[in-house]
Amino acid sequence: MTQVQLDESVEYLKRRGFDTPEIGIVLGTGLGQLVDDIEDSIEAHYNHIPHFPLATVEFHSGKLIYGTIAGKKAVVMQGRFHLYEGYDFLDITYPIRVMHQLGIQKLFVSNAAGAINLNFKKGDIMLIEDHINLQGGSPLAFRNVSEFGNRFVDMSEPYDLDMRQKIEAIAEKEGISLQKGVYASVVGPQLETKAEYRMLKTLGADAVGMSTVPEVIVANHLRLPIMAVSVLTDECDPDNLEPVNIEEILAIANKTEPKMIQLFKELIKQL
């Protein structure tokens, strides 16, 4: 990755009309309905943006969408990138750096995840307070990283405390149940074994997924405040484990998403 590549990506998007967005949003698996709330939208497909990777997961769209949400300019990433698709950490996080150079001041991230904490249930939303990186690498482990920020990034509070407090207050006011916990990020694409679920619980994870942590690390590298939520789509009870049903996971994400959208829109109004 070079600054020239980032400049070329940003210049293309600015020519398309992506003008100084305030908010960046990354939508996870089964969580694409938010785009219906974007006013005066402009789209840019990943395969048209210079140096962008391409989304390969069949239920992920692959485009950036710019427009107005809750009165603020936003750029929404509909379709993200994963290690399990064969991408590396620089590919996965390249769009975060592009959105930052476009001007975003806050980043929202969503994902679909499995509930390790058995007090949490399918359809719950979990505000991520901390994470465990089990993906075996870092998006900052490249030779010229110091050209883009400090090589050694503090991660003592990776998720912005102010936005977390605001969204908790919004959830309480709106009567939306909001869990809080630790997200573990693994490589995938296979789901976990019973022994792996037990290990994750022992490590202190409340939910597990295959994304988000690389983007969060880069956001912290860029000193970009971030807020992230998981929509919990399955319950990972090793003593009562059933075969995974991807269709059911997508259906639960789809059903729960309106609550997540409500939280996001109310938070955007307060920023």
TrEMBL record:
Pfam families: PNP_UDP_1
GO MF assignments: purine-nucleoside phosphorylase activity
Keywords: Glycosyltransferase, Methyltransferase, Transferase
Enzyme class of the recorded protein, top EC level: transferase
Sequence intervals crossing the membrane: none
Record CDD domains: PNP-EcPNPII_like
Enzyme Commission number, as recorded: 2.4.2.1
InterPro entries attached to this UniProt entry: Nucleoside_phosphorylase_d, Nucleoside_phosphorylase_sf, Pur_Nuc_Pase_Ino/Guo-sp, Purine_phosphorylase, VitB12-dep_Met_synth_activ_dom
Domain AdoMet activation residues, every copy: 1-36
Pathway membership: Purine metabolism; purine nucleoside salvage
Family matches, as Gene3D superfamilies: Nucleoside phosphorylase domain
Entry's family note: Belongs to the PNP/MTAP phosphorylase family.
The protein's role, per its UniProt record: The purine nucleoside phosphorylases catalyze the phosphorolytic breakdown of the N-glycosidic bond in the beta-(deoxy)ribonucleoside molecules, with the formation of the corresponding free purine bases and pentose-1-phosphate.
PANTHER family membership: METHYLTHIOADENOSINE/PURINE NUCLEOSIDE PHOSPHORYLASE, PURINE NUCLEOSIDE PHOSPHORYLASE-RELATED
Protein name: Purine nucleoside phosphorylase
Record organism: Flagellimonas iocasae
Taxonomic lineage of the native organism: Bacteria, Pseudomonadati, Bacteroidota, Flavobacteriia, Flavobacteriales
